[in-house]
Each structure stands twice: as structure tokens, then as C-alpha cells.
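The instructor's notes for this session suggest beginning with a concrete chain rather than abstract definitions. Hand out the sequence below and ask the class to guess, before any prediction is shown, which regions might be ordered.
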Amino acid sequence: MQLGIMTIGDVTQDPTTGTTPTEHERIKATVEIAKKAEDIGLDVFATGQHHNPPFVAPGNPPTLMAYLAAQTENLILSTSTTLITTMDPVRLAEDYSYVQHLAEGRVDLMLGRGNTGPVYPWFGKDIRQGVNLAVENYNLLHRLWNEDVVNWQGKFRTPLQSFTSTPRPLDGVAPFVWHGSIRTPEIVEQAAYYGDGFFHNNIFWNKEHTAQMINLYRERYEHYGHGKAEQAIVGLGGQFFMRQKTQDAWREFRPYFDNAPVYGHGPTLEEFTDQTPLIVGSPQEVLEKTLSFREYAGDYQRQLFLVDHAGLPLKTVLEQLDMFGEQVLPELRKEYAASHNPEVPEAPVHPRVAEARTVQGGEHHA
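After discussion, reveal the predicted structure:
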């Protein structure tokens, strides 16, 4: 099981102090949070992609990923959204291959359509074509990474003739792709068709809906011949806020929840924690509820948490990660290892995939 954190890079006022970080402060804080993730032994740090305030998640995530690659040794650097709809697949192929080389393979990405409607016309696209853009653009990206010379013609960009994307993927192995979707079955189908990973953000919806999406993906993954349904590559999001005493966690987090841009002024904190995977409480409660995700997701491969949103100050976020690393992470790893089905593969990582490809190549030539 890969465990990590994800960020959306929001610049939000702290409702308890009235202080709003500058964009510079928020960007530098993101770097500190990623470095803390490596320090406590997490596997993954994933950044969103945004082109609009109040977000400073990078418009070009490889910029941040390359910077973090130079300051970390083990952390897998990923995205919590790469906008496959509004970004040119040629640029995506080039940029992510380049950062893959800089990071010695510690790179993968999660494709998404995005939920900010105005982004589409900013990049000359029609939001009504969102699903079609996602399907066509990924087909081209997949070919650019897996074929040395591409001849291609589609609906949404100019044709390519005898085109080679450079640099080529490290060791001939393209970055692993997760397809992220909350509610779109066409994206689930796309992930299954290619044998890629499927990621559900597991934040806003109840477990019944999340299970429905995951089960559809698993069924279609098996349908396309990539393996058994339980062997499909599934990732989940989630979010937590903890203190040693449950009541302290609720008291401290409530003003942030009540004023959060994404769900503030809506359901109560009590309703949201009851109906969604949000966890507010003690380290033991974070552990137990996180482990319960397997009841509807099965034996899955990646768990990411959102921990730095809604105006939480950097000091608090780092405290949360220290607590998680000391009191939750070891127990999570122990429980996952004890109950893991050996027939279910781990999430692909570059060294293992590259080695397998080398072995297969040797066997072929033998």
C-alpha cells in the first residue's frame, strides 16, 4: 500500500486569526509539507493543477515536481490532477518524461478533467466536450509515450506526422497513469481499457457511491483482460484532522470546516463526518476509519490524504503529519501487510516495472 498526501494548493484565510498567506508563503509551505511527508516515511506527495485564484497549485505541475525531486530521495512525486482536457498531450508527454528523468523515475500522474469551468475557454476548449477531450487526448498521450514515431489525426488538435516526443520515457517505461474521477463512468471505462489505475478522491461522496465507481472499474478491468477484478489498481483519497483527544480535534477543526471554500456553509461537521470519509478525532479513530475503507474499496494500492486545506496554518499541518507518522502510519502499514492478498499486485513503481521489462526482454532474446 502506498500512503501519502495530496494538495489542492488553495490560498484560504485562516478563520481563527483572519490571516491569509501570500501566494509566496503558500508555495513555500507546500514545499515544506512535501519534505515533511518524506521525513515521516510517506510514499507519495501529489499536487493539484490550477490556473486560477484562490489556488497556487502549479499550472504546470512538473515545475514543482522537479524542485521536490532535487530535495527528496524516496518520495514518489505525483499529481492529484493533471488537466488532460485543456493541456496539449504533446506538452504533457514532453514535460512529464523530462521530470521523470530528473527524478530517476519517482514520478507518476493522475489525469482529470478539472472542476473549474472557465479553464476550458481560457485554453480554447469547449467544456461540453470535456469527456471527448479526455478520451482523445489520453489516447494521443499514451501513444506518444509508447510509440517512438507517431502518425496521428484527431478532432481537437493539429495532426502529427512522423512525430517523436522527446525525451523518451526513462528506461522505456512511461510514467504510471491514474485516471481520477468522482462520478464519470466514461473515465472509469478509459482507465480499465488501458489497464491503468483508477483513483476516486473519496472526499465528497458516501461510501456507496465510491464503491459503485470502484466496482465498475474492477469489472471492466477484468473484461479487458488485464487480470482479475480484485487485481485492478485502485487509489483513494481522504482527509483527516486529529488531536490526542477527540473533543480537541472537533473544537479546533470546526471553524476551518465551517468556512472551507469547498464545503463550508453546507452540511454540518457532524453530518459530513457521518456521511463521508472525513475523519476528525484521535489517532486511533483515524486508524480505524481509514482501515474501514477496504470494506467497500477492496484490497487497494494507494491512499492519499488532504491535510493542508481550508486555511490550516503550516504549523498545524506539520503537527498533523508528525502525529500521523508517529501514531498512525506504523499501525496502518502493519494492518495492511497482515491482511494483504498476495494475488493483488502493488501499485506500479518505476524500478520494478523497468526491471520486469528488462527480464522479459532477456527471456525474449534468449
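Then share the key points. The two ends are 34 Å apart (CA to CA). Residues 40 and 322 are 7 Å apart (CA to CA).
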